[in-house]
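Exam revision sheet. Question 4 asks you to relate a sequence to its structure. Input first:
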Amino acid sequence: MFAEKEVPENLIKTILGAANDAPSAHNQQSWKFIILKGGKKQALAGFITENSVKFPRPASALLRMSARSVVEAPVVIAVANTGDLIRHGTELFKVEKETGYDFFRTMEIQSSAAAVQNLLLAASSVGLGAVWLGILYLLKNDVLEFLEEPKGEFMAVIPVGYPLKPPAGPKKKPLEATIKYFE
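Answer key, structure tokens:
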């Protein structure tokens, strides 16, 4: 839940700057940040809600919840992969397209994921709330078309705003349960 308070442009640029500073495979920075406000943001929420009926109940419910987050946030930032690394990677490494495609696709997704993580951390550091709506991957091609982007590896839609209350965050596994050592 977000407060009805606009996010100043300087904070949007701050969090986008942090996202853009993320490490990327071969420094290709094969991402694009798309900022949605006002009518386009509302249209995205409507689009998500309309398309939620195509899915079984659990996914449909999560898609509708995502649409509400989009409506409530003063700004939404979408992150899309450009496909540049996929297109040019085989030339960079002199490998066959068939061999390189999956490799460079994965590297491009990892790079954009790092950018999204930087964006989320930066938002938190300046007092903003942000959430990565991963469920929208179910609609990736439709969302890309809605955003007037070419088909590709869609990464994220992130509503951003001032949280109504301090986020508690989900309960995490104990650190010890996630570590494996070799000596």
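Marking note for examiners. The longest helix spans residues 97-125.
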